[in-house]
Amino acid sequence: MKQLSLSTAIIIAIVSVFLFSGQLARPYVPPSPQPRVQPQQRQPVQRQPVQRPPTPARPQTAPTKPATLAATEMPSLFWLPEDIRFPEMPPGASRTIPLFGDSKNEGLYVTRTLIPKGSQTIPHSHPDSRTVTVLSGVCYYGRGEEFDESRTIPMPPGSFFTEPAGVPHFIWAKDGDVIVQTTSIGPSGTQMVPVRQPGNVRN
Fold first, then answer.
1. CA distances from 25 to 17, 22, 28, 31 (A)
2. pTM
3. In degrees, to the nearest 5, what angle opens at C-alpha 174 toward C-alphas 171 and 180?
4. CATH code for the domain in which residue 110 is found
5. Is 149 helix (H, G, I), strand (E, B) or coil?
Protein backbone atom coordinates (compact mmCIF):
# COMPACT_ATOMS: atom_id res chain seq x y z
CA MET A 1 0.00 0.00 0.00
CA LYS A 2 2.88 2.33 0.70
CA GLN A 3 4.48 1.39 -2.63
CA LEU A 4 1.27 2.20 -4.47
CA SER A 5 1.13 5.48 -2.78
CA LEU A 6 4.75 6.13 -3.55
CA SER A 7 4.26 5.13 -7.18
CA THR A 8 1.22 7.29 -7.44
CA ALA A 9 3.11 10.21 -6.01
CA ILE A 10 5.93 9.69 -8.48
CA ILE A 11 3.48 9.61 -11.41
CA ILE A 12 1.75 12.76 -10.26
CA ALA A 13 5.09 14.52 -9.94
CA ILE A 14 6.15 13.48 -13.46
CA VAL A 15 2.83 14.62 -14.94
CA SER A 16 3.06 17.95 -13.13
CA VAL A 17 6.57 18.53 -14.39
CA PHE A 18 5.41 17.72 -17.93
CA LEU A 19 2.44 20.02 -17.77
CA PHE A 20 4.16 23.04 -16.24
CA SER A 21 7.52 22.68 -17.96
CA GLY A 22 6.37 24.94 -20.82
CA GLN A 23 5.19 27.66 -18.48
CA LEU A 24 8.39 27.59 -16.47
CA ALA A 25 10.56 27.68 -19.59
CA ARG A 26 9.01 30.92 -20.85
CA PRO A 27 10.86 34.11 -19.85
CA TYR A 28 8.95 36.62 -17.78
CA VAL A 29 7.90 39.60 -19.82
CA PRO A 30 6.70 42.51 -17.72
CA PRO A 31 3.60 44.29 -19.02
CA SER A 32 4.37 47.29 -21.21
CA PRO A 33 3.42 50.64 -19.64
CA GLN A 34 0.42 52.34 -21.17
CA PRO A 35 1.22 55.75 -22.71
CA ARG A 36 -0.35 58.74 -20.95
CA VAL A 37 -2.98 60.53 -22.86
CA GLN A 38 -2.21 64.23 -22.91
CA PRO A 39 -5.30 66.45 -22.40
CA GLN A 40 -6.25 68.33 -25.49
CA GLN A 41 -5.60 72.05 -25.32
CA ARG A 42 -8.34 74.29 -26.61
CA GLN A 43 -7.38 76.39 -29.52
CA PRO A 44 -8.38 80.05 -29.15
CA VAL A 45 -11.28 80.98 -31.36
CA GLN A 46 -10.35 83.73 -33.74
CA ARG A 47 -13.31 85.97 -34.32
CA GLN A 48 -13.55 87.97 -37.45
CA PRO A 49 -14.20 91.71 -36.96
CA VAL A 50 -17.72 92.81 -37.79
CA GLN A 51 -17.80 94.81 -40.95
CA ARG A 52 -20.00 97.86 -40.45
CA PRO A 53 -21.16 100.08 -43.26
CA PRO A 54 -19.33 103.41 -43.37
CA THR A 55 -21.13 106.41 -41.85
CA PRO A 56 -22.27 108.76 -44.58
CA ALA A 57 -20.68 112.17 -44.42
CA ARG A 58 -22.95 114.98 -43.31
CA PRO A 59 -23.40 117.74 -45.83
CA GLN A 60 -21.69 120.93 -44.78
CA THR A 61 -23.99 123.90 -44.63
CA ALA A 62 -23.05 127.49 -44.14
CA PRO A 63 -24.05 128.85 -40.72
CA THR A 64 -27.00 131.21 -40.82
CA LYS A 65 -26.99 134.43 -38.87
CA PRO A 66 -29.77 134.55 -36.25
CA ALA A 67 -32.39 137.24 -36.52
CA THR A 68 -31.83 138.37 -32.93
CA LEU A 69 -28.68 139.09 -31.00
CA ALA A 70 -26.68 135.88 -30.49
CA ALA A 71 -25.00 134.97 -27.22
CA THR A 72 -21.57 135.20 -28.86
CA GLU A 73 -22.37 138.72 -30.06
CA MET A 74 -23.73 139.90 -26.71
CA PRO A 75 -21.44 142.39 -24.99
CA SER A 76 -20.36 141.72 -21.42
CA LEU A 77 -21.97 144.19 -19.04
CA PHE A 78 -21.71 144.33 -15.27
CA TRP A 79 -23.95 146.62 -13.26
CA LEU A 80 -23.47 146.98 -9.51
CA PRO A 81 -26.28 148.55 -7.48
CA GLU A 82 -24.23 151.67 -6.77
CA ASP A 83 -23.62 152.13 -10.50
CA ILE A 84 -27.31 152.27 -11.39
CA ARG A 85 -28.26 155.94 -11.05
CA PHE A 86 -31.62 157.15 -12.31
CA PRO A 87 -31.64 160.39 -14.30
CA GLU A 88 -32.90 163.61 -12.76
CA MET A 89 -36.57 164.27 -13.49
CA PRO A 90 -39.23 166.68 -12.20
CA PRO A 91 -40.78 165.74 -8.83
CA GLY A 92 -43.35 162.98 -9.19
CA ALA A 93 -42.15 161.85 -12.63
CA SER A 94 -40.94 158.30 -13.29
CA ARG A 95 -37.26 157.85 -14.04
CA THR A 96 -35.92 155.14 -16.36
CA ILE A 97 -32.37 153.97 -17.03
CA PRO A 98 -31.42 151.55 -19.86
CA LEU A 99 -29.39 148.57 -18.63
CA PHE A 100 -28.99 146.71 -21.92
CA GLY A 101 -29.71 147.52 -25.55
CA ASP A 102 -31.82 150.35 -26.89
CA SER A 103 -35.61 150.18 -26.77
CA LYS A 104 -35.82 152.38 -29.88
CA ASN A 105 -33.89 149.86 -32.02
CA GLU A 106 -34.41 146.22 -32.97
CA GLY A 107 -33.18 143.60 -30.53
CA LEU A 108 -33.24 142.76 -26.85
CA TYR A 109 -33.36 145.55 -24.32
CA VAL A 110 -33.63 145.81 -20.51
CA THR A 111 -34.67 148.93 -18.58
CA ARG A 112 -35.17 149.79 -14.92
CA THR A 113 -37.74 152.35 -13.81
CA LEU A 114 -38.24 154.20 -10.52
CA ILE A 115 -41.83 155.26 -9.86
CA PRO A 116 -42.01 157.77 -6.96
CA LYS A 117 -44.42 157.29 -4.08
CA GLY A 118 -47.98 158.36 -4.82
CA SER A 119 -47.53 158.75 -8.58
CA GLN A 120 -49.88 157.18 -11.12
CA THR A 121 -49.05 156.48 -14.74
CA ILE A 122 -51.59 157.55 -17.36
CA PRO A 123 -53.14 154.51 -19.08
CA HIS A 124 -50.93 153.67 -22.04
CA SER A 125 -49.82 150.78 -24.28
CA HIS A 126 -46.68 149.60 -26.10
CA PRO A 127 -46.18 148.07 -29.56
CA ASP A 128 -44.03 145.28 -28.09
CA SER A 129 -44.92 142.59 -25.54
CA ARG A 130 -43.01 143.12 -22.32
CA THR A 131 -42.13 141.20 -19.15
CA VAL A 132 -41.88 143.11 -15.88
CA THR A 133 -40.28 142.14 -12.54
CA VAL A 134 -40.94 144.13 -9.36
CA LEU A 135 -37.63 144.73 -7.57
CA SER A 136 -38.76 146.89 -4.65
CA GLY A 137 -41.95 148.42 -3.30
CA VAL A 138 -45.51 147.31 -3.99
CA CYS A 139 -46.57 147.95 -7.58
CA TYR A 140 -50.33 148.35 -8.07
CA TYR A 141 -50.86 147.20 -11.66
CA GLY A 142 -54.11 147.47 -13.62
CA ARG A 143 -55.42 147.24 -17.19
CA GLY A 144 -57.92 149.40 -18.99
CA GLU A 145 -58.28 152.69 -20.80
CA GLU A 146 -59.16 154.53 -17.58
CA PHE A 147 -57.42 154.52 -14.23
CA ASP A 148 -59.48 152.46 -11.79
CA GLU A 149 -58.12 151.77 -8.32
CA SER A 150 -60.51 148.84 -7.84
CA ARG A 151 -58.96 147.06 -10.88
CA THR A 152 -55.38 147.24 -9.63
CA ILE A 153 -53.48 144.20 -8.36
CA PRO A 154 -50.86 144.76 -5.60
CA MET A 155 -47.59 143.18 -6.78
CA PRO A 156 -45.00 142.93 -3.95
CA PRO A 157 -41.22 142.66 -4.54
CA GLY A 158 -40.29 139.58 -6.56
CA SER A 159 -43.55 139.63 -8.53
CA PHE A 160 -43.53 139.04 -12.29
CA PHE A 161 -46.13 139.99 -14.88
CA THR A 162 -46.51 140.60 -18.61
CA GLU A 163 -47.67 143.58 -20.64
CA PRO A 164 -49.11 142.30 -23.94
CA ALA A 165 -48.58 144.49 -26.99
CA GLY A 166 -51.33 147.04 -27.57
CA VAL A 167 -53.09 146.42 -24.22
CA PRO A 168 -53.66 149.65 -22.21
CA HIS A 169 -52.46 149.47 -18.59
CA PHE A 170 -51.46 151.70 -15.68
CA ILE A 171 -49.27 151.58 -12.54
CA TRP A 172 -49.74 153.19 -9.14
CA ALA A 173 -47.03 153.56 -6.47
CA LYS A 174 -49.59 153.83 -3.68
CA ASP A 175 -47.55 152.98 -0.59
CA GLY A 176 -44.00 154.08 -1.53
CA ASP A 177 -41.36 154.18 -4.23
CA VAL A 178 -41.51 151.30 -6.71
CA ILE A 179 -38.70 149.96 -8.88
CA VAL A 180 -39.52 147.64 -11.79
CA GLN A 181 -37.31 146.03 -14.43
CA THR A 182 -38.64 145.57 -17.96
CA THR A 183 -37.36 143.17 -20.66
CA SER A 184 -38.54 143.06 -24.26
CA ILE A 185 -37.57 143.04 -27.95
CA GLY A 186 -37.50 146.42 -29.65
CA PRO A 187 -38.31 148.66 -31.27
CA SER A 188 -40.64 149.92 -28.59
CA GLY A 189 -42.58 153.02 -27.77
CA THR A 190 -45.39 154.38 -25.63
CA GLN A 191 -48.86 155.39 -26.79
CA MET A 192 -50.96 157.30 -24.29
CA VAL A 193 -54.69 156.63 -24.07
CA PRO A 194 -56.58 159.89 -24.68
CA VAL A 195 -58.18 161.21 -21.54
CA ARG A 196 -61.96 160.94 -21.72
CA GLN A 197 -63.60 164.31 -21.20
CA PRO A 198 -66.79 164.49 -19.07
CA GLY A 199 -69.90 164.36 -21.20
CA ASN A 200 -68.10 163.03 -24.28
CA VAL A 201 -69.23 159.72 -25.69
CA ARG A 202 -66.60 157.53 -27.31
CA ASN A 203 -67.60 155.21 -30.11
1. 11, 5, 9, 18
2. 0.61
3. 45
4. 2.60.120.10
5. helix
